[in-house]
Design brief:
Elements: H1 5-11, H2 20-38, H3 42-45, H4 52-67, H5 78-84
Helix pairs in contact: 2-4, 4-5
Amino acid sequence: MSVDLADVKSFCQIDFTDRDVEIQGHLSTALTFVADYLRRDMDADYPDGWPDPCKQSVRLLVWHWLFGKAEADVGMPPTVKSLLAQYRDLS
C-alpha cells in the first residue's frame, strides 16, 4: 500500500472536502513522480507496501504543491530527495 487521499489530508491537516479533486490530482502526480525518480515499479518491488520514507516523500510533495511558495520552488524539496536517496535505482 502506498498513500491515499485520507492519509494526505490528515498529514496536511485538511478536514474539508472542497479541494479533494485538486489534492487527489497532486497525490496521483506525487506517486508517479516518486516511482519515476526512484526508477522502480514500486508495487512490484515492495508488494507488502511502500517503505515509510517513500510514503512520507509523497505526503511532503503534496504538501509542497498545495502550500509551498511557488517563487521559492527550485525543483524537488531537499528533504524529499534525502528521504528517497537510499531507494533510488541507479543501475
